[in-house]
Amino acid sequence: MTIEIREGDRKAAFDAALEAYGRQSLYVPPLWSDFDRMFDSERNPFVTEGHGRYALFSAHRDGRPVGRIAASIHDAANRKFGTNVGAFGFFDCIDDAEVADALLGAAERWLGARGVGSISGNFNLTAMQQIGVVTDGFDHAPFTDMMWSPPHIARHLERAGYAKGFPMTTFEIALEDVSPAQLIGDKQRQILDDAEFVWQPISRSAFKARLEDARLILNDGFAENPMFVPPSAAEYLFQAGDMMWIIDKRISTVVYHRGRPAGAIIAIPDLNPLVKALGGRIGPSAPFRLLHHRLTNTRAVLIYQSVCRDLHNRGLNGAMLYRTLQALKHAGYRTLGGTWIADVNGASLRQAEKVGAKPLHRLHLFTKPLAAAA
What we know:
The protein is an alpha+beta fold. The chain folds into two domains: 3-170 and 364-373, Gcn5-related N-acetyltransferase (GNAT) (Aminopeptidase, 3-Layer(aba) Sandwich); 174-361, 3-Layer(aba) Sandwich (Aminopeptidase). Helices cover 34% and strands 28% of the residues. The strands form two sheets. Strands 1, 2, 3, 4, 5, 8, 9, 10, 11, 12, 13, 14 and 15 form a 13-stranded mixed beta sheet that branches. Strand 2 (53-61) and strand 3 form a beta hairpin. Helix 8 packs across helix 9 and helix 10 (272-278) runs antiparallel to helix 11 (286-296). The longest helix is centred in the N-terminal third of the chain and has 16 residues, at 97-112. The protein is globular and about 65 Å long. The two termini are 33 Å apart.
């Protein structure tokens, strides 16, 4: 049967993953409103501020969406790192080689026509959003901001000539088994006892100011991390602004040292069970489901933590995690998910091991040279 590839059909691309995997799978869609504005080139600062370009493709068979993929070029990243690479993202499809090849071919042609030398993914759309293809841990439900894909996605990529690299792991912590005191040593105790460090929650009343300070801390602390491109104020707010409606001020903190932003730890309630129940679309039942979720949810997810570079190795990271774990336990959370940590990040992996974090998913980036590079 003939496969039709469409470009720019956001509704079909949104529906394609649910159609491919079914409601009974562990796949959790983004909210439709988030997906729709992300691929609106007139609203997304990724495009409007000149950071990059993208195209969105969906595959159709007999009029039904059976897969999707995005192709993107992060021009700011290529300028920063002196590279000429493109990316695929949101790659989801039925277990069918013809469909997978048609989608990958569409992304490769779009990038090749723009002179890109290689393609790598998943990047949805940047390294500060969801990245990677799941290669192990398929039976584990993802937390908010985690990737999930069935085994056939990695298999079709390898069959199509993509090589896997840049291994990453997500984690899960059973909070009842954790003693936050394990994180406290002399450095952390000095931080906690030092009145020059001021701890401020991320509350709704101060949300935008705290979020901007958290962005500045992220950009400074992550400046030397692989693939990191500092998000602008507009880009960061575009990605994280909706957190205001679900933030739990007990578990997220911005730390100030002598009046300036010094460290941030961003943790939020896990929304995936709610979003999955809604099918990614906010309908009439959403307020009731949200209320039920707030009353019954015991899962949270650590999105990121960062410390400004001049305070690295002072114990602030451990002190922030100590206070957050205490706050999570006191607030009644039972499980904490941790978004991806790359194998090359030994310090973060050691900290995860120290608090008893267990691997949840294994992920890799998949890369392929493009003919246009020849």
